[in-house]
Amino acid sequence: MAEPKSMEVTTAVTGTAAETGDLVRVENLRKHFPVQTGFLASILNRGHIPAVKAVDGVSFTIRRGEVFGLAGESGSGKSTVGRLVLRLLEPTDGRVIFDGIDLSSLEPEEMRRLRSRMQVVFQDPLASLNPRMTVGQTIEHPAKIHMTDLSAAERRGRVMGILSAVGMNPPESFYDLYPHQISGGQRQRIVLARALITRPELIVADEPIAMADVSVRALLLDLMMKLKEEFDLTYLFITHDLATAKYVCDRIAVMYLGKMCEIGPLKEVYELPAHPYTRALLEAVPVPDPRHRRNEAMPAGEIPNAINPPSGCRFHPRCPIARENCSVDEPLLRELRPEHYVACHYAEELLK
Amino acid sequence: MPEDILYSVRNLTVEYQTRAGAVRAVDDVSLDIRRGEILGLVGESGCGKSTLGKALMRLHTGPASITGGELWFDGRDLMKLPLNEMPDVRGAEIGMVFQDPMTSLNPIQRILDHLTETIHTHEPETSDAAARIRAEELAERLGIRRERLSEYPHQMSGGMRQRVMISLALALRTKLLIADEPTTSLDVIVEAKFLDLLQELQKEFGLTILLITHNIGVVAEVADRVAVMYAAKMAEVGDVNDVFGDSKHPYTQGLLKSVPNIRLGENELYKMEGAPPSLLHPPSGCRFHPRCPFVMDVCHTQEPAFEPVVGDHLASCLLYQKAGVKQESLNG
Question: Do the domain assignments include residue B126?
Fold first, then answer.
């Protein structure tokens, strides 16, 4: 597909995207963060600046109306992907196409207008909320920016509607409260409400329930699923917790050291993990049942440095089924079974 | 005290003085820790589990103080010990590992110095060379290579720092290790390895471990027995298989059902209504009664006793306490 250069081309692309049902298409995305080095080191390196390869060539699509899970450990690059999808970070290379629109082709003003269609929810609601704004002001703020044709009374009405949609009832009793006056679970509901006021299509949820207690988590997850139906949302659900992902995601992608290991329908990936890393990750999740204690050994070593990642397959130094060529040939993401993609030379063996 | 009990907490109460009044973070809690076991202590934020863990070492300062109860550790009541003798117990006999190892380690001290300093503080007679050899052997056992001991904490990964914390506790042949959310900042694979290590150490060193965590899965994975706290009270204590397989307290039942389980085929999580109460004004009677699906009239007024339901399986719930009902009818 040709790179859209003008708005006309963009509209044409929108048509095809709608047909295939893809809301977001990520193509060969890279993000390298340069490492700060001293003057002497920069001379010795002859201008070559080392970089953390946080995301190093990642491609996937998010279909309209699905919950797409992105899992991995700290440093896998999953949160960086989330920020790149929203263009909160500029990619080093590659493209993000949202509803047929190449984000990198947009002028700042066009990007700003597009933002009402994509919103984000982070892990820590207290850090995402302005402590000096009331609940009402917080939720109303995006509407003031993006929905300028509404009157003040209409805006207030919308805020009240959203507040009760996120389960803050009666909404009047919360409208004038400050973030410190409500509980952690309620704060995350406010963050969700603020994200929803502009009626977005995509919500990037980066560990949205990681801070909440067990009983609150179940309620928040349930709310997120209800809102998805009510507001026709598509979620990019970023998480380190595969047990939680199981309850919400339609498809799941697993990242390791800036690369995609495996993408597939959640049920299939959980039942038949085709990548040794996915398998270890699933095995490591503690099961809340003492009759199912883990017996399998965990991969040796720790996640390597993302400045000088291992050659070939990045998982090879820790992989139980690695062979000689794994340290040389980088495995590409291939379709092992319908819809189920894996980046491993010997995935077939694992499935036997 | 029976020989198999290492630490017996009797009717412990810990209060925080706040501007709004005294808050009882731990309220009349009794708990036995048996020799050589891993006891999992679970509960949600604010239930008092960490306060209890600190109280076992009398580590409270500032607004917190122990206002009642006995702390029988290895045959003596630590509450009767003068406070200036507590440092000899801490570290030497009871070790503690916290959630964030970076805040527990001195950023400008090498790992080896951390270890040898700890040994020297409690055993001044040990020679430098002997302390060094002991530190090196111990670190090696915990999977930290000898040459890495000359590094600083920031040069190590989170999992390695947590192993350093454990080695600090083991350097003095601690009898009881209190681990407060030791794996919460770790990734799942690192967590799994850390839990493997804990179990190995338990067997090798005959270590007794109190594992305080909000992660129900972790407890199911490694604990021998489980204690569940709710709103500053002990809700249930029992063998891990009994508590998970046949939980007695309705709070435990709800909590276990709301934990995501990667193995089960179910796609719905149980949603417990309401939220834990404020400890400034805890509910009357049983503290769980406003959220309890089996609430009875008596639960509003009468506080349940913490007593055995079957054998060693204890719970504080009036559903199992016929005596409680009788008592109320007598009073009424």
Answer: no
Tell me which of A215, A237, A287 to substitute to probe the interface with B (most B C-beta atoms closer than 10 Å).
Answer: A215
Instruction: Report which of A201, A263, A207 is spatially closest to residue A68, judged by C-alpha positions.
Output: A263
pLDDT digits (tens, 9 = 90+) for B102-125: 888 999 999 999 999 999 998 899
- In chain A, residues with a C-beta closer than 8 Å to the C-beta of B196 are 298
So where are chain A's domains?
A: 19-249, 256-289+298-351
Tokens of A226: 């209800």
DSSP letter for A27, please.
E
pLDDT at A177 over 50: yes
* Token couple for B198: 């804990």
DSSP per residue over A318-333, as a string?
G-TT--GGGGTSPPPP
The CATH number that applies at residue B46 is: 3.40.50.300
Which residues 171-190 of A are in CB contact (within 8 Å) with B?
Answer: 183-185
Q: Cα–Cα distance between A114 and A101 in angstroms, integer?
A: 10
CB contact under 8 A, A217 and B258: yes
Average pLDDT (A220-249) is: 94
Amino acid at A172: E
Q: How confident is the model at residue B330 (pLDDT cuts 50, 70, 90)?
A: very low
| Strand ranges in chain B using DSSP code E only, listed in sequence order | 5-18, 21-34, 38-42, 64-73, 76-77, 94-97, 176-180, 208-213, 225-230, 233-239, 307-310, 313-315
Residues of chain B in contact with residue A292, where contact means CB-CB under 8 angstroms, are 220, 263
Tell me how far apart the alpha carbons of residues A204 and A186 are, in angstroms, rounded to a whole number.
19
How many domains are there within chain B? 1
Q: What's the pLDDT at A47?
A: 66
Of A327 and B268, more confident:
A327
- Within-domain flag for B156: no
The tens digit of pLDDT for each residue in A38-97 reads 777 777 776 677 889 999 999 999 999 999 999 999 889 999 999 999 999 999 999 999
Instruction: Over range A227-250, report the average pLDDT.
Output: 95
Q: What is the ipTM of this complex?
A: 0.84
Average pLDDT over residues A213-228: 91
Q: Which residues contact A16 (CB under 8 A, 6 or more apart)?
A: A1, A100
Contact residues, chain A, for B262 at CB < 8 Å: 242-243, 246, 270, 282, 285, 287
DSSP 3-state assignment of B126? coil
- pTM higher than the cut 0.90: no
The answer to whether the CB of A257 falls within 8 A of the CB of A304 is: yes
B267 lies within 8 A of chain A by CB: yes
Query: Does the distance separating the beta carbons of B258 and A215 come in below 8 Å?
Result: yes
Preferred mutation among B184, B246, B266, B269 to probe A, highest tally of A CBs within 10 A: B269
Radius of gyration of chain A (CA): 22
Q: Token digits for B35?
A: 């020799």
Q: What is the pLDDT of residue B31?
A: 96
Q: Hey, are the CB atoms on A286 and B195 less than 8 Å from each other?
A: yes
Residue-wise pLDDT for B243-252, tens only, equals 999 999 999 9
CATH of domain A19-249: 3.40.50.300
Q: Is A349 on the interface with B (CB under 8 A)?
A: no
Q: Is A295 on the interface with B (CB under 8 A)?
A: no
> Number of CB pairs < 8 Å for A and B?
122
- Please tell me the distance from the alpha carbon of residue A238 to that of residue A74, in angstroms, as a whole number: 12
Q: Which of B220, B262, B271 sits opposite A243 (nearest CB)?
A: B262
Q: Does B151 fall in a domain?
A: no
B244 lies in some domain: yes
CB B64 within 8 A of CB B10: no
What is the domain range of residue B312? 5-93+174-331
Give residue A269's identity as a one-letter amino acid code: V
pLDDT at A20: 61
